[in-house]
């Protein structure tokens, strides 16, 4: 056998296979990674990583809720939260800038639920022509049902956030401003319909928001002290009184809707 010829044949054969690999899509090099498959694996890994991170964040939120309501926010450290949730401190800081940021996230969930509930009930077509008494009653009861759905979350959003630091207070003031604008719109609507006396309601609305926060906080400190329906009645009374609208207790003024606290109670 001619060694030189054998070497040439081998080289020629290798070149032929390389050319086929470049030109024939069906030809696959067993030693080469499929880009499409690699991309799919990476996507699945990213999705799995996102799911794990979401689960970790939820675990931190749930653990903090339990500790803040049983031990109190001031007495609960980041180390205690992480140890209880079985999350490293490094992982904690991947989710939150600090303990105040965690508290803000918990407060925001409750505040957003309350606003969404009020907007949802007022978006009902029947509310467009409803009087101020019916609208105030419906939005107040819907709001209360949302923010008191989970008593532990209610306590955090209305009790533990008080005096919890500058960042938390700024967050609360932001929500207070949003509610002030929202309720001012309802007051203007009532004035335009001749249901409320024309005047500047800005200070009265701020006082109303403070009263609502304190009454809900009072309930949150001991949710068994009195029923939510009694709290709902008192909030409606305060809201109507702020606009100078008499609360005559007419059943037609309470428009039932899913998730609302009605006069029949819960």
Structural class based on helices, strands and sheet pairing: mainly alpha
Contiguous runs where pLDDT drops below 50 for at least 5 residues: 1-8, 18-27, 250-266
Q: How many helices does DSSP assign?
A: 10
Proportion in β-strands: under 5%
Q: Could you tell me how far the N terminus lies from the C terminus, measured between alpha carbons in angstroms?
A: 98 Å
Question: Tally of extended strands?
Answer: 0
* Silhouette: elongated
Question: Radius of gyration, rounded?
Answer: 31 Å
Mean pLDDT: 82
List keywords for this structure.
266 residues, single chain, mainly alpha, disordered C terminus, disordered N terminus
Describe the structure.
The N terminus and C terminus are likely disordered. The radius of gyration is 31 Å and the shape is elongated. It has 10 helices and no strands. It is an all-alpha fold and 266 residues long.
Q: Quick summary of this structure?
A:
Mean pLDDT is 82; it is low at 1-8, 18-27 and 250-266. By secondary structure, this protein is mainly α. Helices cover 69% and strands 0% of the residues.
Topology, please?
Elements: H1 3-23, H2 35-70, H3 78-85, H4 89-95, H5 99-122, H6 132-147, H7 151-160, H8 166-192, H9 202-221, H10 228-242
């Amino acid at each position: 056998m001619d060694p030189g010829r054998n070497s040439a044949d081998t080289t020629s054969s290798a070149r032929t296979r390389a050319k086929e690999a470049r030109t024939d899509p069906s030809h696959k090099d067993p030693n080469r990674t499929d880009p499409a498959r690699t991309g799919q694996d990476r996507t699945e890994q990213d999705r799995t990583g996102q799911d794990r991170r979401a689960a970790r964040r939820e675990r931190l939120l749930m653990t903090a809720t339990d500790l803040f309501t049983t031990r109190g926010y001031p007495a609960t450290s980041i180390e205690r939260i992480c140890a209880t949730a079985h999350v490293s401190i490094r992982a904690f800081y991947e989710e939150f800038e600090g303990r105040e940021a965690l508290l803000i996230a918990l407060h925001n969930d409750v505040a957003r639920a309350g606003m969404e509930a009020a907007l949802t009930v007022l978006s009902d077509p029947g509310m467009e022509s409803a009087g101020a008494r019916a609208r105030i009653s419906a939005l107040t009861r819907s709001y209360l049902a949302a923010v008191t759905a989970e008593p532990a979350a209610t306590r955090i959003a209305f009790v533990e956030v008080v005096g919890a630091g500058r960042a938390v207070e700024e967050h609360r003031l932001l929500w207070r401003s949003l509610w002030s604008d929202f309720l001012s719109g309802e007051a203007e609507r009532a004035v335009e319909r001749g249901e409320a006396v024309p005047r500047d309601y800005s200070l009265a609305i701020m006082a109303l928001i403070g009263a609502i926060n304190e009454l809900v906080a009072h309930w949150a400190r001991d949710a068994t002290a009195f029923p939510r329906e009694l709290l709902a009645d008192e909030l409606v009374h305060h809201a109507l009184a702020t606009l100078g609208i008499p609360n005559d207790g007419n059943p037609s003024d309470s428009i039932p809707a899913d998730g609302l606290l009605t006069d029949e109670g819960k």
